[in-house]
Structures are given as structure tokens and as C-alpha cells.
Fold this sequence. Notes:
Layout: H1 4-19, H2 25-41, H3 46-65, H4 73-92, E1 107-113, H5 119-132, E2 137-141, H6 149-160, E3 164-165, H7 173-186, E4 191-195, H8 204-217, E5 221-227, H9 234-245, E6 249-253, H10 262-271, E7 275-279, E8 287-289, H11 292-299, H12 305-317, H13 320-331, H14 337-349, H15 353-357, H16 372-387, H17 391-394, E9 402-405, E10 410-414, H18 416-426, H19 430-450, H20 456-467, H21 479-488, H22 491-499, H23 504-511, H24 517-531, H25 538-547
Parallel strand pairs: 1-4, 1-5, 2-3, 2-4, 5-6, 6-7
Antiparallel strand pairs: 7-8, 9-10
Helix pairs in contact: 1-2, 2-3, 3-4, 4-11, 5-6, 7-8, 9-10, 14-16, 16-18, 18-19, 20-21
Amino acid sequence: MVLADLGRRINSAFAQLSRSPVIDDKALDALLKEVASALLESDVNVKLVATLRQKVKAKVKAQIEAGADKGKDINRKSIIQRAIFDELVQLVDPGVEPYKPKKGHSNVIMAVGLQGNGKTTTCTKLAVHYQRRGLKSCIVCADTFRAGAFDQTRQSATKAKIPYFGSYTETDPVAIAAQGVTKFKKERFEVIILDTSGRHKQEAELFQEMIQIGEKVNPDMTVLVLDASIGQAAEAQAKAFKESADFGAIIVTKMDGHAKGGGAISAVAATKTPIIFLGTGEHLHDLDRFSPEPFISKMLGMGDIQGFMDHMQNVAMANPEKQKEMQKKLGEGKLSIRDWREQIQNVMNMGPLSKIASMIPGLPQGMLEGTDEEGGARMKRMMIITDSMTAAELDSDGSPFIIFDEKNNKVVDVNKRRLKRIAKGSGSSVREVEEMLCQYRMMSNMAKSVGGKNGWMQNLQKMQQAMGRGRGAGGMPTPAQIAQMQRSLPPGMLQQMRQSGGNMQEMMKAMMGGASDEEMGEMNRMMQQMAGGMGGLGGMGQMFQNMMGGMGRGR
């Protein structure tokens, strides 16, 4: 991912600071030198880096003189790390609120930028984003300079089921833009996205054309589409576009590549314009909302809980009716094999495992590199096994696969005939079918504990309502919010969490209806296989410890 190397370098510098026996000016200078070097190598403008060093030193000095460190090195480390974090956030946060499209009003958004930066693809992604949020969206292709531009718009818009306008015969982009915007305004479209030709600051004629289009359609917001790999040229190009088109927002594309990405930071600082979205892939839904603090938090391996929740919500919005039905079933504590299969499909639809894992606090960056294909293959294997089941088996709770002794009220064996049939039909072994059913059973037990009148789901919903949006770093709750969560929990649930001592595995065991150690071992192994060794959720575990007030010991 773009800027991942920067995050690793800064984390490495923090680690060196933690190992320093004494935190003095020399240790601070060494840390700032390493951070500055990392920023410069990532193509961040040298003036910005010099300013960051000065601000961090001044802020740290002021806090230490005020006695915030209480004379302890460990407190000084926290002050220094927080100061650097805050200044990194300031680099990508100009403090300007971008324009937000209003429902019931025709909002015209004009996209401008250099050739090859991904404007046409981004326009379709943007239309899909707003369409999924209930705004009637469309695209106008006013790019007559690039051969095949309208064809690309037509193909991507058709795939996304987004209305579009363009012309094969009209050569005047100003006329096309005016016709398209007028047409869609009459049809009461709420978001009209105008795609323009790519240009750079040396092309005076194309820049003049861009100004004419802006004057003709009078857009509510002009967006600069910027390639993450632009490098040191970003500042000059961004300033030229700002002077001509006065854009109000930036979308950074190709964030899934290995470019240095510092140029985008320089563009924000040079133009005092906020980034609103990040293009993270080639698919239509690979457009992530940008927020400065969670972005830096994620870059430094501290996770992005709010981004994770937003991502899950976006997946749910793709099929709201099915999601409501699933919530009802989970609320009743019911989970059939078919329901479980759909949940696996939802996980697969969320994107690469490494992208999801980077949002979770406590997971080291790069831990899941190279494992996306393996994790996806394992989930596909489970899907293939369920494809060989009958409708009755899929809608069951797994009981057709066991032989139950009603007299003694216990399971005596598995239905080997069914297992062999499914294994043969799916091209897998009986052992793989058994493992899949074991994993389903564990999730089913968890659903029973989660659902129902006094289940975890209702209690967690109360907890979330009491807490609201996480206002701490990376979307994590603040101490005040944790206290609200404690007050909202039923005494029985809080007691159960205290007895577990904050141990995530013990809490999972309790949720699964007292699963055996062997089953928990299988659960851990399954999670490690699916995520390629995700490791412990350090940040989440800490949050639970904070929530319980460290009361798990000796009570």
C-alpha cells in the first residue's frame, strides 16, 4: 500500500526511542532526523518536513517545561509520539470542510487533473458511492481530447447501472458539458459528475478550456484527481489547477500500489484543500472515504476502527433486504448452514484480508502480505463444499450430519454416507467436510449466545448507543466513552467479562456456549488459517481491559 513504507520507518524510529535509556534532546533529535528522512524519501516537500520538525520540537519542549511529563521518561516518550502523530495529521488536514452534496438539489461536481491519473474511473466510482447513499447520480463525459474516453465512460457506467451522457460527433467539450448538465438537471438528478480532459500546467489551451467549462456549468464543487505516484511535481501542478479551476477537494488514486505517495500530502499543504476520497483498487467500490486522523493511525499500524465499521456498513448496503433478514435471524439466535455460507460470502465481498486487517488495532503492518490469495482460497473451498449440499441440508442446523441417540440424549456418530457424498461432489476429502461442519457448529453456538432477548447482540447494541462514535485515536473509544459503555452493560454480562480477565479467547468461549478447549483450539486454528496468521487483536483486547477497569484480577 502507498505510504506503508513511511509508516514502517516511523514505527521503527518510535521503537528506537522506546529502547533509549534516557529521553533527552539528543534522543529527540535522532528520532526527528529519522522521521524527516522517511518523509523526504516518500516525496513529501522539504519545506513541509522542516516545518514539522520545528513544530514537534516546540510542542514537546513546551509540554515538558509545563511539567506534563512529571519527570518520567515513559511520559516523555508518550508526549513525543503524540506530538509527531498530531503534526502528521496536520499535514493531511488543512482544516477546511469540503462541499457535501445535498439531497433534493442538483449538485454538479467537475473532475479535473493530469492525463492518466484515473479521472474517468474515479467519476464512475464517485457516482456509485453517492448512488448507494440514496442520491440519484449520473455522469457527463466532456473529454473530447482522449480517444476512447467516451467509450470508457459508457462501459463503466453501464456496468455500474449509472446514467451517462456524451457524444461521438460533438467536438466542443464546453457544449457537451452544458448539454449534459442541463439534461440531467431537468431529469432531477441529484449528483451530476462531469468528467473533463486530462491536462497539465504547460498546456495553456486546455487550461483555458477547463476555465470555460467551469464558467458555463458553474459546478458546486471541482475535484482534483491526483495520482499517488506523482512525486515532487504535485505541488506545482496542484497550484496551477487551484489558480485556474479553484478546486475544493482532492481525490488521490492508485493508493493500492507501491508509490511513495508523499506528493499527495504536498498538494494538500500547497493548496489548503482537503482530500475527500482515496482510490484503493480498480473495482467500482474501491473508493474509501478519507479522514485525516484515522488515515495516519492506520498508516502507523494503529488501526482504524471507524473505517472498519464503515466498510462493513457499505457491504451491508449492497443488499439491505437480505441484511435485515440476517439480523432478524441472528437476533433470534438462529443460524443455518445457508446463513453461515452467506456470511462467508460477505467477508469475501469486503475485499482483501490484508486491507481489512490493516484497520484492526494491534495487527502489525505487513503481517498479511501475500496471504490474501490463500485466505480467499480457503473460504472458496468452504463455499464449494456447501454447493454440494441439498436445500434441506443447507437450511438445517447441521443435525442431518449427525446420528443422535434420543434415549441417552447424546450424539453417537456422524452420518458418514452424507459426508462421503458431499466430499465426492465437491472434490474434497471427508476430513475437509468435517472441518467445515465443525467451524459452522462453533459459529452456530456463538449465534445462539449472541441472539435472543438477553443475548450479546442486544447488550452490545445498548453499549454502542451509549458510547456513540469512537473519539479516540484510530476511532477507539475515549475513557469517558468506556465509562458510558460500562454503565450500559447488564451486571451479568460485565461479570462474565470480568471473570474472563479480559482474555479474548475466554470471552469467545463463553459466547460459544462453553465450547471445549479442543473446539477453541480448532477455532483459533481456523482463524489463523483464514487470515494467514493474523495474531492477537492487541488494541481490541486493551479496549476490553479498559472497559472492565482492570477488574478481572482476584475478583
